[in-house]
Amino acid sequence: MRQFASMCLGLALLFGLAGCGEKAAESATGSKPGKAKNLHIAVIPKGSTHEFWKSVQAGALEAGKEFGVEVTFKGPMKEDDRESQIKVVEDFVTGGVDGIVLAPLDDTALRQPVEAAKRADIPVLIIDSALKDVEVVSFVATDNFKGGETAGHEMERLLGGKGRVVVLRYQEGSASTREREDGFLQVMRSNPDIVVVSENQHAGPTTESAQTKAESLLAPLKRPDGSLDVDGIFCPNESSTFGMLRALQSNGWAGKVRFVGFDASTKLIDALRAGEIDALVVQNPHRMGYLGVKTILDKIQGRPVEARIDTGAALVTKANMDSDEMRKILEAPK
Length: 334
Hints:
Layout: H1 2-29, E1 40-44, H2 51-67, E2 70-73, H3 82-95, E3 99-102, H4 111-119, E4 124-127, E5 139-141, H5 144-158, E6 163-169, H6 175-189, E7 194-202, H7 207-218, E8 232-234, H8 238-250, E9 258-262, H9 266-274, E10 279-283, H10 285-300, E11 308-310, E12 313-317, H11 324-330
């Protein structure tokens, strides 16, 4: 009887340990982090005014609430304030946060503060726009070159394969928008019947600077009858698209030239519905913010993470904007 009881105890211990092993393995490789109430994650956007960043913030805060971590969202007001963003990173490093999720507004200027964070044993994950020559936890972003190609193919379709096109770039140093511009231009250059009239002008960081640049860019392209000697326009982000839209509206050109933009806001969606914009390549910033926090938490808690996570993009047109799929993207929490 005693021998039988010992054998039962041994079997119970064996199966109990096996069960613990399975739970440990599940915790190490599972897709969701566990609760981590004492961790503090800093999320640093390029700017604070565009609707895109408000949606990133909503996603980041949702992840923080779900996984029980403190998330602080702080960045510069304007997307050309490199010094301010650098200082924000440095302040979080000095304050000793557990991890940083960063959208660098310059692919070179932010390298040094990121290296400083790494020396302080603070892991850094990059979202939205790449950083040159720095090893980071992961890069969570849209495939921006592919997004630019998508815009290019839509413009090609809208023009019937021929016409004169203008590209209003965003600003120098922004890797994400440069990749979109490059993807779009590659499609344009592959078609000998499409002429790129201008591709070297930059909108700057705000809607106001974009409108001013759009006005000066389009003025020499105005025909004697007041119409534009341009068939298509592409802009690579929310502020450049909205600034161009305002320039077209103020001159009576909106809806009279094919216009493909990038990103979405309430006013851009209204313009799409009104036929003043033909298409928008729309990212998923809410997902970007959510996965940025989730992925760096995975890293902190010892789970493997992918080096590159594509958060996806979709082409939204007047024809599909009310579909369930597109409404889910356009109506993401902000």
